[in-house]
Specification:
about 60 residues, mainly alpha, two-stranded antiparallel sheet
């Protein structure tokens, strides 16, 4: 019986600002930092909007 390979490879892509995508692995450390800060800011905005509409969900936490 052949051994199964359960390894999974995941690749992340980010918008390049010109309508295309770039591999996350290709970004410089500075670009990764800037992208991470944008994501954190956006998630904060999204969560704030959600909990403003659904305060009962926030009360659970």
């Amino acid at each position: 019986m052949a051994k199964k390979n359960n390894e999974l490879t995941v690749r992340g892509f980010v918008p390049d600002g010109n309508g295309g995508l770039r591999s996350y692995e290709e970004l410089s450390e500075e670009e990764k930092d800037a992208f991470g800060k944008k994501i954190v800011e956006r998630m904060g905005r999204v969560l704030n909007d959600y909990f403003s509409i659904h305060p009962e969900a926030y009360a659970k936490y």
